[in-house]
Write the structure tokens for this entry.
Amino acid sequence: MTTNAVDQAQETLRRLVDNVERVILGKRTVIEHALAALLAQGHVLVEDLPGVGKTTLAKSLAITTGCSFKRIQFTPDLLPTDISGISIYNQKTEDFQFRPGPVMSQIVLADEINRATPKTQSALLEAMEERQVTSDGVSRPLESPFFVMATQNPIEYEGTFPLPEAQLDRFLLRLTMGYPGREAELAIIDHQERIHPIDSLEPVAQPEDIAGLQEEAKNVHVDPLLRGYIVNITEQTRTMSDVGLGASPRATLGLFRASRSLALVRGRDYVIPDDIQELAEEVLAHRIIVSVQARIRGVDGKSIVTEIMGNVPVPGVRSRPAGPRSSA
């Protein structure tokens, strides 16, 4: 990647992050990670409490990037065709006409995805993985870029259907937004005293710019030592006694691609260990199935990843001797 290309990409990405941060205050890292997922052509699951800005983040990204946007409210009575679309018979033409569903948009918000039945949830699988929808035997490609941001409430389980492992594995990142800090929350009051800042938000890029950035992310250099570091991390998830099912090779690729994209967002054309460490939990924790015995002890995917990151040697970092230093 040339220096000029990196500078242009960095300037575009800075404008994108700054623009979204006008609406999502005090959450620059969350915005950067969501944008990195978009550049890596992945999808994001946002697991957090109501009212912290999950829907606003998706809408802000769509407006900022100039992408089309659709919101799907998942409910127990939602049908797969309500997502993908349906063919309806037209009496005038005496033929069936396809009416596209909301998934045929560039940025899709799947709100409270775990409130729909597994059959309906699976309607997203083909779109997320193959970037197409099939209806009546006809496959229809989705417009590029295509990005799904799904949300779910981590504490409200009544009337919900947990996402199956196959679908969780399709999400590149699982993000949490958390409460804003005191100063940020005061700023939110000031910004929304009269109107919501999203009402005045304007695009600072176009979908073709995002497609170009996705290609630039593929040119970010990842040293062979760092490639081995990624594989060592995911391999550890498959050998720990507390893990029933470790991260898949899709997770390895996900950590690799997300690290490249985050490096580009941070203005570099090469990955450093910090990029991998920063994203490891968000890429891996939701893909790890903890054994029953470990769950009883309170072990979860996050604690597993934390332990792994403390055990796997970082390339280029010399480990400190275990014994006490000898005095000269």
In short: The CA atoms of residues 36 and 250 lie 17 Å apart. Residues 220-315 form a domain with the Helicase, Ruva Protein; domain 3 fold (CATH 1.10.8.80).
